Amino acid sequence: MPVFDWGRSYNRDALGNDLVAAVIVTIMLIPQSLAYALLAGLPAETGIYASIAPIVLYAIFGTSRALAVGPVAVVSLMTAAAIGNLAEPGSAELLVAAVTLAFLSGVFLILLGIFRLGFLANFLSHPVIAGFITASGILIATSQLRHILGISSGGANLPELLRSLYEHLGEVNWTTFAIGASATAFLFWVRKGLKPALLAAGVKPKLAGVLAKAGPVAAVAVTIFVTWVFNLSETAGVRVVGDVPQGLPPLTMPSFSPDLWGTLIGSAVLISIIGFVESVSVAQTLAARKRQRIVPDQELIGLGAANVGAAFTGGYPVTGGFARSVVNFDAGAETPAAGAYTAVGLMLAAMLLTPLIYHLPQATLAATIIVAVLSLVDFSILKKTWVYSRADFIAVSTTIVLTLVFGVEVGVTAGVLISILIHLYKSSRPHMAVVGRVPGTEHFRNVKRHKVEIDETVLTLRVDESLYFANARYLEDSLYDMVAARPQLRHVILMCPAVNEIDMSALESLEAINERLKALGVTFNLSEVKGPVMDRLRRGDFLSHLSGKVFLSQHQAAVELNGENPQLKVSSSQPQERTSP
Amino acid sequence: MPVFDWGRSYNRDALGNDLVAAVIVTIMLIPQSLAYALLAGLPAETGIYASIAPIVLYAIFGTSRALAVGPVAVVSLMTAAAIGNLAEPGSAELLVAAVTLAFLSGVFLILLGIFRLGFLANFLSHPVIAGFITASGILIATSQLRHILGISSGGANLPELLRSLYEHLGEVNWTTFAIGASATAFLFWVRKGLKPALLAAGVKPKLAGVLAKAGPVAAVAVTIFVTWVFNLSETAGVRVVGDVPQGLPPLTMPSFSPDLWGTLIGSAVLISIIGFVESVSVAQTLAARKRQRIVPDQELIGLGAANVGAAFTGGYPVTGGFARSVVNFDAGAETPAAGAYTAVGLMLAAMLLTPLIYHLPQATLAATIIVAVLSLVDFSILKKTWVYSRADFIAVSTTIVLTLVFGVEVGVTAGVLISILIHLYKSSRPHMAVVGRVPGTEHFRNVKRHKVEIDETVLTLRVDESLYFANARYLEDSLYDMVAARPQLRHVILMCPAVNEIDMSALESLEAINERLKALGVTFNLSEVKGPVMDRLRRGDFLSHLSGKVFLSQHQAAVELNGENPQLKVSSSQPQERTSP
């Protein structure tokens, strides 16, 4: 268990650093946890509970030294999408659904970890993740506008959210709006302008950093105070957090109803994968800065344990959060023990501070969320992919549009499927080049890009892709077309330096090509076949039927086969830049 | 349109050959069409109707000269699975469902053809198709046992079929069984032993071939005669085909009910793809024998038109059949006109012969099917894939088991998904080799396979796979591990001769690697990057940030980077056979 690695060498220095980091993270987490619980459609205290046991369990089972586990924006939104329609807001059934979702998600993550299936998360391509996070940020920010305006609109996707906002626009509570708008403006200023202002005023950089982190707490304190003094919840109808139970997280049990499991399992899988991908990206980024390593399959177990912990302590699905982890790291956390101290801080908050937040306006929490998620919105990925690769651009733009229009679950599923389909499409029509010899060398290059010598009785085709079921027939078709266009042909050489695999379907295509060429009196040869591919070809009987030979190098093949007919012609194509093969 | 290609040069020779082929195929198709309609759970005449308009439409729009289009075994089974539960056998609703299924399948095929999406069919790997056909053959043969035994069992998969057979075993009609068993035995003998016997008796080979093809017709004629003479359908309860309407195919309309479309669309897609794959394989095999070419995207349109034709003339989904196409080809068919003459033959049969088949026992048709499909059952693919590639073995064995246990639709869907997942899994953990120079040459080979020189300050890693989202993180992880194990390292070279693509995710990983190595004081270089990949890298700003260089050849890279530190060490690994890189 990872805990033994760092536990053995734990000393007073590490303790001091971890404690400082824990205090800073605790201050930041209190408003954030309340806010994300609200975003998930759950009572505010659920957010605090979801930050205590999970953080301790991750410290024991996880491999990242700085990752801070708890509720995060995107997973909270996905939780709302998964359980929002199952029960009334605030009902006991909804809480059971939330802990069951955390339980299923945790078990799924642990199973992936045990069976070392962490690689599955790689099927979310970077652009798809970036598009999904951006679209989710927009959805989240839009969904919070209702709290800023004090209206009761709803919706699970952008068209629904906007229509509902428009329909309820007559009900705006202007006191709530004043609180929400000023809190949002203040928090944006804290994020961008407070630290420079403090530094300019002569405050030491470290303290300035801590004070800037405390901005949300200040907004919370001030709006609580104002709402309490003027009793705005009763006199002006400002919605507040209200009664929050005081005490330690409760012991809860997930449901074992097969019906509920059936309803939630798909969402649990998506939440697990999105949570894992987000968490691993953060953990890897932070580990790299200190030349540490994380172990993805062990991370799955750490996050899985955290979610199972959330399930039994009144929480909801959690993962490693970007903002809190970076704060933890910047504050100097050295070991996962910092997370455990944070948990203690949050326990104290749950026991002592909950009466104070009765008058906390929901608009303040919404402001916290909006400011946090708008930093996730980044459309530059559209421009980057447009320039670099149209296929990636299609994947990312489809993910963004589908997430906005149909919600998070459709969006991310479509993103994965599109990434895979585009990859398969590309590898199903591989780049192929007819090659000839660069005069005076042993190099063979594309006749379309270089001035090369070719022999009309020999066709050398280089395939720039592994041969497998998706492109086997394409190879057959292309080769037959080329052979049909060259009546003088006597030898075909398939040049394989880029062929990393030949599967059974491709082997059958090669056998078909061999038979068909044999019937035409043309030999079929291979050159530059790689070791692992050659090992595999030797297992079947293809090589014993091959009408030609397997040559170690293309040069040897050309020497031997051209030998019968030494008239070489220089390809008529234009000489081009020599940088491409 | 393909019809103009061969239509212009049509002459008397071709006419003669086509007419002979048409007569032979018509004789063969009459019992086969009736039998497959029964397999699909439809009235016997549907099979004849499905062979007339489709065959003519394919002759106009298709590109194969010898393909014979009509009902086939696997598609008939899939039709039964798709519509069997929607309505009572023999009801008008069932016929509407059948023509709607043909219509949807036809429209889907035409759309695939118009958008040039024929490549999608390539995602069915050869072993998966072979496994699917074998399992379908077993399912079909088992499903026909009830007709041989004269019982009313049912089921859509092997466990259901066997349980139902067992439960109804007490009801066996022994007269039916006598007819069915002797017809089966006779047809097996016709298939294996008749032609050699005729040849031995001095019959000319061509006539012997035709007589052997007429075996099923003989079985049909004899059993009709026996059943008629003894009136077995009334005296012994032998089930017969019964009343079949006499006349031309009726004009039918597919349903445009959205509900029915929703129910059938998934099945229509599967039927289209399976039908297309089967048809294209047959057409390619036959075209190759005469050095002709087929155009897969035009084939989609030809098959689509055939299915739409079936939809409007009382048929059900059709495709190019293996047995009838081979017979057509062997009988000397030169052009698709042979198909049109076959259609005329079948129209005559529909008008004149239907009264004769009133007394045809269903057991005879079941015998025809069993003998035909058992020739499709071939487990050798299991042995071949076991020897050649475990991944293909897993795909094929899973397809067989799932098809048998859960039916055709689950089986083929699972087969496609498993093929794709296995491919993605393999390419997500690519083969990588640390390489060094073979002494005295400019070649660089795997240090684990060859005796090579390496420089401890330079790490050259060759990745044998395109870099894309599924393996980008794996590359990062592997490279960081290697760098962490080599404290003296100053340069990393990524050797890219097998990298056919670098997508956006992989580019971001390369950027991350570059940044991280830079922080460690190690330069990051690329060598032997291909033209198309280099073109793409130039579009972004990666190359301007690259801490090292891009070298045209690995040799140049080694000369320049080793130059700073010329102490070379010979790798300690054992020298091995030189055939693998």
UniProtKB/TrEMBL annotation, chains A, B:
Signal peptide feature range: none
Coiled coil (residue ranges): none
GTP-binding keyword on record: no
Domain STAS: 448-562
Keyword DNA repair attributed: no
Ranges that cross the membrane: 20-43, 55-83, 95-115, 127-152, 172-190, 210-230, 260-288, 300-318, 338-358, 365-382, 394-422
Compartment(s): Membrane
Membrane topology, as annotated: Multi-pass membrane protein
Keywords: Membrane, Transmembrane, Transmembrane helix
Gene3D superfamilies in alphabetical order: STAS domain (3.30.750.24)
Source species, domain of life: Bacteria
Record-given protein name: Sulfate permease
